[in-house]
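Subject: sequence -> structure tokens, single chain

Hey, anyone have a minute? Need the predicted structure for the following. Not urgent.
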Amino acid sequence: MHYKIWRSNKDKSLHLLCGGGPAAFNVLPAAIRHLGPWTGGAEGDVNRLRLTYRVQLAEQGFVVIYDHVSKLQLENVAGVHPANTECPTCQGKAGVPIHAGLRDKECPRCGGRGWIKSPGR
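Reply:
Had a minute. Here:
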């Protein structure tokens, strides 16, 4: 199943998330449809949505979001594994300069990996 995001032309911070396809927008309650005129936006797979949006979309069939477009995060973002952090000695380059910067050698702290285990683990 797909979703589509709509942005209101009256209020640029008002967004509407509903199922994909033109029929999904037409079956929305009239009070929600008349908050705009709406401009179509991004589309994607519902399984990639954040859990809160997925649950509301399944229960109600739509989600009204009031947030600035730069802060709008609909999908889960895969990040760096929290157990590994960048090596502070080589700054993730896996090498450190020797002989006044003429050569590089393997970083003694991270062993040339560029990362170390976080201090909490």
